[in-house]
TrEMBL record:
SUPFAM superfamilies: S-adenosyl-L-methionine-dependent methyltransferases
Protein name: Methyltransferase like 4
Compositionally biased spans, kind Basic residues: 74-83
Native organism: Echeneis naucrates (Live sharksucker)
Family recorded in the similarity comment: Belongs to the MT-A70-like family.
Compositional bias of kind Polar residues: 432-451
Lineage: Eukaryota, Metazoa, Chordata, Craniata, Vertebrata
Gene field: mettl4
GO molecular function, one term: nucleic acid binding
Length: 451
Protein backbone atom coordinates (compact mmCIF):
# COMPACT_ATOMS: atom_id res chain seq x y z
CA UNK A 1 0.00 0.00 0.00
CA UNK A 2 1.15 3.55 -0.56
CA UNK A 3 -1.38 6.33 -1.16
CA UNK A 4 -4.66 5.32 0.48
CA UNK A 5 -6.75 8.42 -0.26
CA UNK A 6 -6.31 11.41 -2.53
CA UNK A 7 -8.68 14.37 -2.50
CA UNK A 8 -8.76 18.12 -2.98
CA UNK A 9 -7.44 18.41 0.60
CA UNK A 10 -4.35 16.32 -0.02
CA UNK A 11 -3.28 12.73 0.58
CA UNK A 12 -3.46 10.06 3.26
CA UNK A 13 -0.44 7.75 3.16
CA UNK A 14 0.59 4.35 4.41
CA UNK A 15 4.20 5.22 5.27
CA UNK A 16 5.33 1.66 5.94
CA UNK A 17 3.85 0.55 2.64
CA UNK A 18 5.90 3.18 0.83
CA UNK A 19 9.08 1.71 2.34
CA UNK A 20 8.05 -1.83 1.41
CA UNK A 21 7.57 -0.97 -2.25
CA UNK A 22 11.31 -0.66 -2.71
CA UNK A 23 12.37 -3.59 -0.52
CA UNK A 24 9.84 -6.38 -0.96
CA UNK A 25 11.94 -8.27 -3.52
CA UNK A 26 15.54 -8.62 -2.36
CA UNK A 27 18.73 -10.43 -3.12
CA UNK A 28 20.80 -11.20 -0.04
CA UNK A 29 24.55 -11.72 -0.33
CA UNK A 30 26.18 -13.88 2.34
CA UNK A 31 29.57 -15.55 1.92
CA UNK A 32 29.50 -14.82 -1.82
CA UNK A 33 26.19 -16.67 -2.13
CA UNK A 34 23.00 -15.08 -3.40
CA UNK A 35 19.56 -15.93 -2.00
CA UNK A 36 16.19 -14.33 -2.63
CA UNK A 37 14.29 -12.91 0.32
CA UNK A 38 11.44 -10.56 1.07
CA UNK A 39 12.05 -7.57 3.36
CA UNK A 40 9.21 -5.83 5.14
CA UNK A 41 9.60 -2.77 7.35
CA UNK A 42 8.46 -3.71 10.84
CA UNK A 43 4.93 -2.46 11.46
CA UNK A 44 5.61 -2.03 15.18
CA UNK A 45 7.30 1.29 14.33
CA UNK A 46 3.96 2.63 13.08
CA UNK A 47 1.75 1.38 15.90
CA UNK A 48 1.00 4.84 17.31
CA UNK A 49 -2.19 3.76 19.05
CA UNK A 50 -2.82 6.46 21.65
CA UNK A 51 -2.79 10.19 21.16
CA UNK A 52 -0.99 12.35 23.69
CA UNK A 53 -4.14 13.85 25.15
CA UNK A 54 -5.09 14.44 28.74
CA UNK A 55 -6.80 11.65 30.67
CA UNK A 56 -10.07 13.59 30.61
CA UNK A 57 -10.11 13.34 26.85
CA UNK A 58 -9.72 9.56 26.71
CA UNK A 59 -13.44 8.91 26.30
CA UNK A 60 -13.57 11.20 23.31
CA UNK A 61 -10.48 9.52 21.91
CA UNK A 62 -12.20 6.16 22.13
CA UNK A 63 -15.11 7.52 20.12
CA UNK A 64 -12.63 8.42 17.36
CA UNK A 65 -14.17 11.79 16.57
CA UNK A 66 -11.59 14.45 15.80
CA UNK A 67 -13.93 17.41 16.23
CA UNK A 68 -15.14 16.07 19.55
CA UNK A 69 -11.58 15.81 20.76
CA UNK A 70 -10.88 19.39 19.85
CA UNK A 71 -13.99 20.57 21.70
CA UNK A 72 -13.67 18.42 24.82
CA UNK A 73 -9.93 18.40 25.32
CA UNK A 74 -8.34 21.25 27.10
CA UNK A 75 -4.72 22.04 26.21
CA UNK A 76 -2.21 21.05 28.89
CA UNK A 77 -1.36 23.71 31.39
CA UNK A 78 1.52 25.95 30.49
CA UNK A 79 4.71 25.84 32.44
CA UNK A 80 5.06 28.58 35.00
CA UNK A 81 6.93 31.62 33.77
CA UNK A 82 8.71 34.42 35.42
CA UNK A 83 6.95 36.75 33.03
CA UNK A 84 3.30 36.33 32.13
CA UNK A 85 3.62 37.83 28.66
CA UNK A 86 4.48 35.67 25.65
CA UNK A 87 7.73 36.32 23.86
CA UNK A 88 7.73 37.37 20.21
CA UNK A 89 8.42 33.87 18.93
CA UNK A 90 5.43 32.47 20.82
CA UNK A 91 3.22 35.27 19.54
CA UNK A 92 4.28 34.56 15.98
CA UNK A 93 3.63 30.84 16.46
CA UNK A 94 0.17 31.54 17.84
CA UNK A 95 -0.75 33.81 14.93
CA UNK A 96 0.52 31.27 12.40
CA UNK A 97 -1.46 28.47 14.05
CA UNK A 98 -4.66 30.52 14.07
CA UNK A 99 -4.31 31.15 10.34
CA UNK A 100 -3.98 27.51 9.37
CA UNK A 101 -5.98 25.81 12.14
CA UNK A 102 -9.21 25.35 10.18
CA UNK A 103 -7.30 24.01 7.16
CA UNK A 104 -5.61 21.38 9.33
CA UNK A 105 -8.76 20.41 11.23
CA UNK A 106 -11.21 20.23 8.33
CA UNK A 107 -8.78 18.71 5.81
CA UNK A 108 -7.60 16.01 8.22
CA UNK A 109 -11.14 15.07 9.15
CA UNK A 110 -12.10 14.75 5.49
CA UNK A 111 -9.14 12.51 4.64
CA UNK A 112 -9.47 10.38 7.79
CA UNK A 113 -13.22 9.91 7.27
CA UNK A 114 -12.59 8.77 3.68
CA UNK A 115 -9.91 6.33 4.84
CA UNK A 116 -12.16 4.89 7.55
CA UNK A 117 -14.94 4.32 5.02
CA UNK A 118 -12.45 2.20 3.09
CA UNK A 119 -11.53 0.23 6.22
CA UNK A 120 -8.30 2.01 7.20
CA UNK A 121 -7.38 3.82 10.45
CA UNK A 122 -9.68 1.59 12.46
CA UNK A 123 -7.22 1.19 15.30
CA UNK A 124 -4.19 -1.03 15.90
CA UNK A 125 -3.74 -3.81 13.36
CA UNK A 126 -0.46 -5.59 14.15
CA UNK A 127 0.80 -6.27 17.63
CA UNK A 128 4.53 -6.17 18.25
CA UNK A 129 5.65 -9.75 18.75
CA UNK A 130 9.30 -9.08 19.47
CA UNK A 131 11.33 -6.64 21.53
CA UNK A 132 12.07 -3.33 19.89
CA UNK A 133 15.64 -3.44 18.56
CA UNK A 134 17.79 -0.55 19.64
CA UNK A 135 20.30 -0.15 16.83
CA UNK A 136 22.85 2.51 17.64
CA UNK A 137 23.60 4.43 14.47
CA UNK A 138 27.28 5.33 14.33
CA UNK A 139 27.33 6.62 10.74
CA UNK A 140 27.88 10.26 11.69
CA UNK A 141 30.91 9.27 13.74
CA UNK A 142 32.26 7.26 10.81
CA UNK A 143 31.85 10.32 8.58
CA UNK A 144 33.98 12.30 11.02
CA UNK A 145 36.67 9.65 10.88
CA UNK A 146 36.49 9.54 7.08
CA UNK A 147 37.56 13.18 6.87
CA UNK A 148 41.10 11.89 7.26
CA UNK A 149 40.80 10.00 3.97
CA UNK A 150 42.04 11.72 0.78
CA UNK A 151 39.41 13.30 -1.44
CA UNK A 152 38.89 12.12 -5.00
CA UNK A 153 40.89 14.45 -7.27
CA UNK A 154 39.17 16.31 -10.08
CA UNK A 155 41.11 14.16 -12.54
CA UNK A 156 39.47 11.08 -11.01
CA UNK A 157 35.90 12.28 -11.40
CA UNK A 158 35.14 9.44 -13.79
CA UNK A 159 35.94 7.07 -10.95
CA UNK A 160 33.85 8.92 -8.38
CA UNK A 161 30.94 6.50 -8.92
CA UNK A 162 31.00 2.76 -8.28
CA UNK A 163 28.63 -0.17 -8.16
CA UNK A 164 27.27 -1.47 -4.86
CA UNK A 165 28.00 -5.13 -5.52
CA UNK A 166 31.07 -6.26 -7.40
CA UNK A 167 31.50 -9.65 -9.03
CA UNK A 168 30.72 -12.45 -6.60
CA UNK A 169 28.83 -10.16 -4.24
CA UNK A 170 31.93 -8.45 -2.87
CA UNK A 171 31.31 -5.13 -1.07
CA UNK A 172 34.44 -4.94 1.09
CA UNK A 173 36.31 -2.55 -1.21
CA UNK A 174 33.59 0.13 -1.39
CA UNK A 175 34.52 3.70 -0.56
CA UNK A 176 31.19 5.01 0.73
CA UNK A 177 32.58 8.36 1.92
CA UNK A 178 34.15 9.90 -1.18
CA UNK A 179 32.34 8.15 -4.03
CA UNK A 180 28.68 7.83 -4.97
CA UNK A 181 27.54 4.21 -4.61
CA UNK A 182 24.90 2.85 -6.99
CA UNK A 183 22.67 -0.20 -6.82
CA UNK A 184 22.14 -0.70 -10.55
CA UNK A 185 19.95 -3.80 -10.27
CA UNK A 186 16.18 -4.21 -10.53
CA UNK A 187 16.02 -5.83 -7.10
CA UNK A 188 16.76 -4.53 -3.65
CA UNK A 189 20.01 -5.87 -2.22
CA UNK A 190 20.89 -6.88 1.34
CA UNK A 191 24.63 -6.40 1.75
CA UNK A 192 27.21 -6.08 4.49
CA UNK A 193 28.73 -2.60 4.71
CA UNK A 194 31.17 -1.60 7.45
CA UNK A 195 30.34 -4.78 9.34
CA UNK A 196 26.56 -4.21 9.36
CA UNK A 197 23.80 -5.46 7.05
CA UNK A 198 21.71 -2.92 5.14
CA UNK A 199 18.79 -3.13 2.71
CA UNK A 200 19.55 -1.09 -0.43
CA UNK A 201 16.56 -0.43 -2.75
CA UNK A 202 16.85 -0.93 -6.52
CA UNK A 203 18.26 1.76 -8.82
CA UNK A 204 19.42 3.76 -5.82
CA UNK A 205 22.49 5.96 -5.45
CA UNK A 206 23.87 7.38 -2.20
CA UNK A 207 26.79 9.27 -0.71
CA UNK A 208 27.63 8.92 2.98
CA UNK A 209 29.25 12.22 4.03
CA UNK A 210 28.79 15.61 5.62
CA UNK A 211 29.22 19.15 4.25
CA UNK A 212 32.97 18.85 3.93
CA UNK A 213 32.70 15.83 1.60
CA UNK A 214 29.70 16.72 -0.57
CA UNK A 215 31.77 17.42 -3.72
CA UNK A 216 31.44 13.85 -5.08
CA UNK A 217 27.71 14.53 -5.37
CA UNK A 218 28.46 17.57 -7.54
CA UNK A 219 30.96 15.52 -9.55
CA UNK A 220 28.20 12.95 -10.06
CA UNK A 221 27.19 15.24 -12.93
CA UNK A 222 23.47 14.75 -12.56
CA UNK A 223 20.92 17.52 -12.63
CA UNK A 224 17.90 16.81 -10.48
CA UNK A 225 14.25 17.64 -11.22
CA UNK A 226 13.19 17.21 -7.59
CA UNK A 227 15.20 17.98 -4.45
CA UNK A 228 13.79 17.20 -0.99
CA UNK A 229 15.68 18.08 2.18
CA UNK A 230 15.10 17.66 5.90
CA UNK A 231 17.75 19.85 7.59
CA UNK A 232 18.84 19.15 11.17
CA UNK A 233 17.34 22.37 12.51
CA UNK A 234 18.63 23.83 15.75
CA UNK A 235 16.22 23.61 18.69
CA UNK A 236 16.37 23.09 22.43
CA UNK A 237 14.87 19.59 22.34
CA UNK A 238 17.54 18.26 19.98
CA UNK A 239 20.27 19.99 21.98
CA UNK A 240 19.06 18.37 25.21
CA UNK A 241 18.58 14.90 23.76
CA UNK A 242 21.80 14.92 21.67
CA UNK A 243 20.07 12.70 19.12
CA UNK A 244 21.99 14.28 16.27
CA UNK A 245 24.17 17.27 15.49
CA UNK A 246 22.07 20.29 14.51
CA UNK A 247 23.09 22.83 11.90
CA UNK A 248 22.88 26.64 12.10
CA UNK A 249 20.45 27.98 9.53
CA UNK A 250 23.09 30.17 7.91
CA UNK A 251 25.18 27.08 7.06
CA UNK A 252 22.43 25.75 4.79
CA UNK A 253 23.33 28.42 2.22
CA UNK A 254 26.53 26.49 1.57
CA UNK A 255 24.61 23.60 0.00
CA UNK A 256 25.33 23.51 -3.76
CA UNK A 257 21.65 23.40 -4.71
CA UNK A 258 22.03 25.57 -7.87
CA UNK A 259 24.74 23.17 -9.08
CA UNK A 260 22.47 20.18 -8.51
CA UNK A 261 19.11 21.52 -9.70
CA UNK A 262 17.80 21.40 -13.25
CA UNK A 263 15.85 24.43 -14.55
CA UNK A 264 12.38 24.49 -12.99
CA UNK A 265 13.46 21.92 -10.37
CA UNK A 266 10.92 21.47 -7.58
CA UNK A 267 12.59 22.03 -4.18
CA UNK A 268 10.83 20.86 -1.00
CA UNK A 269 12.11 21.64 2.51
CA UNK A 270 10.82 20.17 5.77
CA UNK A 271 10.59 22.98 8.34
CA UNK A 272 9.85 22.92 12.05
CA UNK A 273 6.97 24.95 13.47
CA UNK A 274 9.41 27.59 14.65
CA UNK A 275 8.47 30.85 12.81
CA UNK A 276 12.09 31.96 12.50
CA UNK A 277 12.97 28.79 10.56
CA UNK A 278 10.01 29.27 8.24
CA UNK A 279 10.91 32.91 7.59
CA UNK A 280 14.52 31.94 6.94
CA UNK A 281 13.56 29.42 4.26
CA UNK A 282 11.07 31.69 2.53
CA UNK A 283 12.89 35.03 2.80
CA UNK A 284 16.60 34.09 2.82
CA UNK A 285 17.46 30.53 1.82
CA UNK A 286 15.26 30.13 -1.25
CA UNK A 287 16.05 33.62 -2.65
CA UNK A 288 19.76 32.93 -2.08
CA UNK A 289 19.49 29.88 -4.35
CA UNK A 290 17.22 31.53 -6.92
CA UNK A 291 14.16 29.55 -5.83
CA UNK A 292 10.66 31.01 -5.99
CA UNK A 293 8.29 29.97 -3.19
CA UNK A 294 5.13 28.49 -4.73
CA UNK A 295 3.31 26.63 -1.94
CA UNK A 296 3.22 25.64 1.71
CA UNK A 297 2.04 22.18 2.70
CA UNK A 298 1.52 20.41 6.03
CA UNK A 299 2.33 16.93 7.23
CA UNK A 300 -0.35 15.95 9.77
CA UNK A 301 0.43 13.12 12.18
CA UNK A 302 -2.42 10.87 13.35
CA UNK A 303 -2.77 7.67 15.35
CA UNK A 304 -3.92 4.31 13.99
CA UNK A 305 -7.44 5.45 14.95
CA UNK A 306 -7.20 8.70 12.99
CA UNK A 307 -6.75 11.06 15.95
CA UNK A 308 -4.17 13.82 16.13
CA UNK A 309 -1.04 12.59 17.92
CA UNK A 310 -0.97 15.84 19.90
CA UNK A 311 -3.77 18.28 20.71
CA UNK A 312 -4.22 20.60 17.76
CA UNK A 313 -4.12 23.66 20.04
CA UNK A 314 -1.27 22.50 22.27
CA UNK A 315 1.05 25.43 23.11
CA UNK A 316 4.07 23.12 23.02
CA UNK A 317 3.92 20.39 20.36
CA UNK A 318 1.67 20.51 17.33
CA UNK A 319 0.47 17.46 15.38
CA UNK A 320 1.76 18.91 12.10
CA UNK A 321 4.95 20.04 10.39
CA UNK A 322 5.46 22.43 7.49
CA UNK A 323 6.86 21.82 4.01
CA UNK A 324 7.91 24.77 1.84
CA UNK A 325 7.80 24.14 -1.92
CA UNK A 326 9.61 26.23 -4.51
CA UNK A 327 10.75 26.21 -8.14
CA UNK A 328 14.36 26.81 -9.12
CA UNK A 329 14.47 29.74 -11.57
CA UNK A 330 18.01 29.95 -12.99
CA UNK A 331 19.52 33.10 -14.42
CA UNK A 332 18.69 34.15 -17.97
CA UNK A 333 22.05 32.98 -19.34
CA UNK A 334 21.58 29.42 -18.04
CA UNK A 335 20.72 26.89 -20.78
CA UNK A 336 17.08 25.90 -20.32
CA UNK A 337 16.64 22.22 -20.98
CA UNK A 338 13.50 21.88 -18.90
CA UNK A 339 12.11 18.35 -19.09
CA UNK A 340 9.85 18.18 -16.03
CA UNK A 341 6.20 19.04 -15.74
CA UNK A 342 5.35 22.63 -14.94
CA UNK A 343 2.08 21.72 -13.24
CA UNK A 344 0.76 24.43 -10.87
CA UNK A 345 1.21 23.39 -7.25
CA UNK A 346 -1.77 23.97 -4.97
CA UNK A 347 -1.16 25.73 -1.65
CA UNK A 348 -2.07 24.42 1.81
CA UNK A 349 -2.29 20.75 0.87
CA UNK A 350 -2.16 18.10 3.62
CA UNK A 351 -0.15 14.90 3.82
CA UNK A 352 -1.73 12.77 6.56
CA UNK A 353 -0.12 9.61 7.95
CA UNK A 354 0.65 7.65 11.09
CA UNK A 355 4.16 8.81 12.04
CA UNK A 356 7.04 6.52 12.82
CA UNK A 357 8.10 6.01 16.40
CA UNK A 358 11.68 6.34 15.13
CA UNK A 359 12.98 9.86 15.62
CA UNK A 360 13.21 12.00 12.46
CA UNK A 361 11.83 9.37 10.07
CA UNK A 362 9.65 11.22 7.58
CA UNK A 363 7.16 9.67 5.14
CA UNK A 364 8.30 9.24 1.56
CA UNK A 365 6.99 11.99 -0.74
CA UNK A 366 7.74 10.16 -3.99
CA UNK A 367 4.17 9.14 -4.80
CA UNK A 368 2.77 12.57 -3.97
CA UNK A 369 5.34 14.70 -5.76
CA UNK A 370 5.47 12.71 -8.98
CA UNK A 371 2.17 14.41 -9.84
CA UNK A 372 4.16 17.63 -10.22
CA UNK A 373 7.46 16.41 -11.68
CA UNK A 374 6.52 13.30 -13.65
CA UNK A 375 7.29 9.64 -13.03
CA UNK A 376 10.66 9.80 -14.82
CA UNK A 377 12.07 12.78 -12.91
CA UNK A 378 15.54 12.54 -11.39
CA UNK A 379 15.16 12.89 -7.61
CA UNK A 380 17.57 13.82 -4.81
CA UNK A 381 17.16 13.84 -1.02
CA UNK A 382 19.55 15.91 1.09
CA UNK A 383 20.13 15.11 4.79
CA UNK A 384 18.56 11.72 4.06
CA UNK A 385 18.35 9.00 6.72
CA UNK A 386 16.96 6.37 4.37
CA UNK A 387 16.96 5.43 0.69
CA UNK A 388 14.19 5.40 -1.91
CA UNK A 389 14.09 3.36 -5.12
CA UNK A 390 15.18 5.42 -8.09
CA UNK A 391 16.48 8.29 -5.92
CA UNK A 392 19.91 9.67 -5.09
CA UNK A 393 20.44 10.37 -1.38
CA UNK A 394 23.07 12.24 0.61
CA UNK A 395 23.72 12.68 4.33
CA UNK A 396 25.93 11.62 7.21
CA UNK A 397 23.26 9.08 8.30
CA UNK A 398 22.02 8.20 4.84
CA UNK A 399 21.77 4.46 5.63
CA UNK A 400 20.31 4.82 9.12
CA UNK A 401 16.82 3.39 8.50
CA UNK A 402 18.09 0.87 5.96
CA UNK A 403 19.71 -1.18 8.72
CA UNK A 404 18.45 -4.75 8.62
CA UNK A 405 17.26 -4.59 12.25
CA UNK A 406 14.33 -2.41 11.11
CA UNK A 407 13.09 -5.10 8.69
CA UNK A 408 11.55 -8.54 8.85
CA UNK A 409 13.33 -10.85 6.40
CA UNK A 410 11.68 -14.01 5.05
CA UNK A 411 12.92 -16.42 2.35
CA UNK A 412 11.00 -16.53 -0.93
CA UNK A 413 10.94 -18.94 -3.87
CA UNK A 414 12.37 -17.80 -7.18
CA UNK A 415 9.02 -18.12 -8.94
CA UNK A 416 6.92 -16.61 -6.14
CA UNK A 417 4.78 -13.67 -7.26
CA UNK A 418 4.99 -10.68 -4.95
CA UNK A 419 1.47 -9.28 -4.52
CA UNK A 420 2.83 -5.87 -3.49
CA UNK A 421 3.96 -5.34 -7.12
CA UNK A 422 0.41 -5.60 -8.44
CA UNK A 423 -1.88 -2.61 -8.71
CA UNK A 424 -5.01 -3.20 -6.66
CA UNK A 425 -7.96 -1.01 -7.55
CA UNK A 426 -10.84 -2.84 -5.97
CA UNK A 427 -10.85 -0.96 -2.66
CA UNK A 428 -9.01 2.36 -2.67
CA UNK A 429 -10.57 5.21 -4.58
CA UNK A 430 -10.22 8.93 -4.83
CA UNK A 431 -12.27 10.81 -2.28
CA UNK A 432 -15.29 12.54 -3.89
CA UNK A 433 -13.55 15.84 -3.17
CA UNK A 434 -10.90 14.93 -5.76
CA UNK A 435 -13.31 15.94 -8.51
CA UNK A 436 -12.90 19.56 -7.50
CA UNK A 437 -11.54 22.07 -10.07
CA UNK A 438 -8.20 22.13 -8.26
CA UNK A 439 -7.62 18.47 -9.15
CA UNK A 440 -8.66 18.78 -12.78
CA UNK A 441 -5.31 20.22 -13.87
CA UNK A 442 -3.33 17.29 -12.47
CA UNK A 443 -2.25 14.46 -14.77
CA UNK A 444 -3.67 11.04 -13.94
CA UNK A 445 -1.35 8.71 -12.02
CA UNK A 446 -1.78 5.38 -10.35
CA UNK A 447 -0.94 6.87 -6.95
CA UNK A 448 -4.67 7.00 -6.24
CA UNK A 449 -4.58 3.25 -5.78
CA UNK A 450 -2.81 0.91 -3.43
CA UNK A 451 0.58 0.26 -5.00
Amino acid sequence: MAVLVRSGCGWLLDSAGLVDRGCSRCVRWTDERKTRVRCRFKRQWFEIIKSHYSVKGSAAADRGNTEELQRVNKPPKKRKRRHSELNQGEIDSQHFHEKIRSVILEGTKSLVDSAQLLGYLKGATDKATEPTPLHECGLAALCEMAKELPLVDDEEQEESVHSLVAEGGCTSQLDLFSRVTENRTDWATVVTLMGEEYVIPPHTAFLLSDFTRIQPLVHYEKKFDLIVMDPPWENKSVKRSRRYNSLPSSQLKRLPVPQLASPNCLVVTWVTNRPSHLRFVRDELYPHWGIEVIAQWFWVKVTTSGEFVFPLDSPHKKPYEVLVLGRYRPSADTPRRCKILNVPVDDCRLIVSVPSALHSQKPSLSEVLKLYVGAKATCLELFARSLQPGWTSWGNEVLKFQHLSYFTVTPTDDDQVDISDKVCTDKVRDSPASNSPRESSLPHHSSTTVD
